[in-house]
Amino acid sequence: MKKIAVVGGDGIGPEVTRVAVQLLEGLREKKGLPIELWELDLGADRYLRDGTTFPKEISDRIRAECAAVLLGAMGDPRVPGLEHARDILFGMRFGYDLYANVRPVKALSDRLVPLKGRAAKDVEMVVFRENTEGVYVGFGGQFKKGTPDEIGINEDVNTRKGVERIIRAAFDHAVKHGKKRVCMADKSNAMALAHELWLRTFKEVAATYPGIEARHVYVDALCLFMIQDPTQFDVIVTNNLFGDIVTDLGAALQGGLGMAASANIHASDPSRVAMFEPVHGSAPPLAGKDLANPFAALLSAGMLLTHLGHAGYEDLIERTIASALEQAQCTRDVGGDLGTRAAAAWVIERVLADA
Ligand code: NAD
Ligand code: IPM
Ligand code: MN
Q1: Residue 9's beta-bridge partner residues?
Q2: Nearest residue to 92 via CA among 239, 249, 262
């Protein structure tokens, strides 16, 4: 039996997570999947109620007992400093050493590709975002805060181990999935110290994968190329901050954030707990209105099932969502007029029928 911790979180998080849970429960009933769900109360409501964000006892239990976490989103205007969101999200990404944030950029409908003359087949790549280092580590400080002389510093931390393992994960993914090209994006022209490490490591690792075409681009040019001609990319690997940014750009190529799924994994040891979440945030203006697109959450549940060794469901979920889009059985952001629950129900019913 594999245990999955479920954290709806804030804003639209609980709404999109609830339907992803329905999908998992439906598959458990129909196919006898050996999974057990464990709902956790983590997020802004809890923080505002009792001041706790991600208690150590819960974090330890997830690490010890769970195969995966399914997470909705974190971020609530009532907590403007977002301290709970960082404690929980980074508590999992850093705390469980989930160094690979795998974010597929795949369009499921021609209609959703915003580029002139391009179709869904032109948008199929995956971003390997380093998930435990970079400017996200919180090294730095504030000095003379609130005065005219104040200073704010976040250091960009890059270790050989951290850089090498995410680059290797990207190449391993390419080999495993028959992809021919890995592109690394950094800013080594400007950040010559930290990012020279990326460039040198990339060249060294690439030399050990002779069958894969290795290409380096600066991240600003990557943004240009992703829009001009997305067909030139199979696997992109980059640091934490750039990966965050280019995957929102990638989401735009997929039809918006409601379509972008992700996995946070310890790529070299898949037996460790992993975390699955849509790329989107808590979208406060949509929260509680049955307006949020549930597809990114359903696709993330599909990635979770593949990770747990239940092959086939991820493809089925993806194909069913593609037909939902084809028939406009979807939410407004992707051209339909259904609510979150109805769009999800359309997909879940068909996935369960075909599973
Ligand atoms: P956001 O992703 O919540 O929203 C950006 C835009 O995308 C908005 O226009 C929103 O309406 C739209 N959108 C997002 N998800 C959608 C969905 N499922 N269906 C339809 N439209 C959708 O990003 P933001 O507005 O910059 O941030 C809101 C909060 O979420 C902030 O607190 C931010 O820190 C947090 N956040 C959390 C995560 C996470 O938990 N992993 C990710 C991103 C942002
Ligand atoms: C994401 C989000 C987070 C990040 C925020 C909420 C800290 O944007 O998961 O993409 O930057 O990683
Ligand atoms: Mn983001």
Answers
A1: 73
A2: 262
Co-location of 133 and 262 in the same domain = yes
Report the distance separating Cα 239 and Cα 193, nearest Å.
Answer: 14
Query: 263 and 128 in one domain?
Result: yes
- Cβ proximity of 3 and 274 under 8 Å: no
Which 3 state secondary structure label does DSSP give 33? coil
User: For residue range 224-276, what is the model confidence (pLDDT) as tens digits?
Assistant: 999 999 999 999 999 999 999 999 999 999 999 999 999 999 999 999 999 99
Same domain, 119 and 190: yes
Q: Do 160 and 26 fall into the same domain?
A: no
Distance between CA atoms of residues 309 and 150, nearest Å: 51
* Residue nearest atom 11 in ligand 2 by C-alpha distance: 244
Which domain does 212 fall in, by range? 105-267
Ligand nearest to the CA of 335: 1
What CATH number is given to the structural domain containing 120?
Answer: 3.40.718.10
34 Cα: distance to centroid of ligand 1 (angstroms): 32
Residues forming a β-bridge with 153: 141
Select from 211, 213, 187 the least CA-distant residue to 199: 187
307 and 241 assigned to the same domain: no
Domain count, the chain: 2
Query: Which pLDDT score is estimated for 50?
Result: 97
